[in-house]
Structure formats: structure tokens, C-alpha cells
Amino acid sequence: MALVLLTGGARSGKSELATRLAAEGDEPVAFIATAQSGDEEMEARIAAHRRERPASWRTIEEPLRLCEAIEAVGEGDALIVDCLTLWTANALDRLGAEGTEAEAAAAAGGAAARPGLTIAVTNEVGLGLVPGDALGRGYRDLLGKVNAIWAAAADRALLLVAGRWLALEATDSLGESLR
């Protein structure tokens, strides 16, 4: 059907839009949650997200094995992957940058090949300050690459800012859009 990528800043409305899009259909919904709780604040965030999802939705909590989690979802089910930002941090820690890029490409390809609606949520972190250390800069750069990989595989990509979205056009259509 379609792979939709939702990107934007923190609290811009990405997860809310993903939930709304998935709920609009009649298909069962699966939700891949990539977050891990490392402290009380993160545990509270995870609990709040769990409460926001309908009880009928299937939740797959998988911080690393994204390809396997996508493959485990029924072909006709709507799927939300929330979020690539945390998945990238998890993958970088365990797979390194090159391994993360390769796994991102495989997962994006698997998501794009699904017949059911797939919505991937990610943060755009490259619009702010340059991180002050090499690890932060490396993560920011890697997430930018992961986001570009998923955007290239997506049928639609939307940038959310302050609860509003802008459609992102592929660069291969640049000439047409500027005329």
C-alpha cells in the first residue's frame, strides 16, 4: 500500500499523526516500539505512550531487531514504527555506524515492500546546534543518513512542525517542482 515517513522535531505531532493515520483504516494495527527505559523519566514516557494506544493494537517492543519485527507483522495490518531516532541510538551502540546504515536499508526495504500501510516516525535532529562532542556529531550524522534511507524508500515523507505538516518532495522531481 504505502510507506509514510513522518519526521520533525520533538513534540511536533509525529506520533499523534501516525496514530491517527493508522486508526483511520479498518485493518488491524501493529505498533513497533523501539524505546528502552533507562531511567524513571523514560519509563514514564513509555507508559504514557502505551496508554495512548488503543488496547486492540498489537505492540511489539523491539529496540534493535527492526527487520524481524517488521516481518512479524501481518501483511495486511497497518504498522507504525515509533521511532527510528531511538532505534538508531540502539543500533549505533550495538552495530556501529556502518552496520546501522545497512540494517536501516534492509528495514526500510522490508517496510516499503509490505502491502499494508506502514508509518515510520523519526526526529529531525540536524536543524539545531552542532553537538559539542564527536559521539553526538556522529549520531546526528548517522540519524540523518538513516532518515534519508527511509525517505528514499517511502511513498510519502512529511515534515511536522508545531503540529502542522509539509509534504517533502523527492529530489529526483526537483526540476518539475520548480517550473
Defining traits:
179 residues, alpha/beta, Rossmann fold, seven-stranded mixed sheet, 7 strands
Can you give a write-up of this model?
The chain is α/β, with parallel strands linked by helices. It has a single domain, classed as Rossmann fold. The protein has a 7-stranded mixed sheet with strand order 3-2-4-5-1-6-7, with helices on both faces. The model has no long low-confidence stretch (mean pLDDT 93). The protein is globular and about 45 Å long. The chain contains 6 helices and 7 strands. Helix 4 links the parallel strand 4 (78-82) and strand 5 (118-123).
**What are the low-pLDDT stretches, counting only 5+ consecutive residues below 50?**
none
- The number of domains: 1
| Pattern of helices and strands | EHEHEHEHEHEEH
CATH class: Alpha Beta
Mean pLDDT across residues: 93
Relative strand content: 15-25%
**Total beta strands:** 7
Question: What would the CATH topology be?
Answer: Rossmann fold
Instruction: Supply the helix-strand structural class.
Output: alpha/beta
Distance from first to last alpha carbon: 30 Å
- Gross morphology is globular
User: Major beta sheet, specifics?
Assistant: 7 strands, mixed
**Major β-sheet strand ordering:** 3-2-4-5-1-6-7
How would you name the oligomeric state of the polypeptide chains in this document? single chain
Write down the Rg: 16 Å
Secondary structure tally, helices: 6
Supply the CATH superfamily name.
P-loop containing nucleotide triphosphate hydrolases
Helix content: 40-55%
CATH architecture: 3-Layer(aba) Sandwich
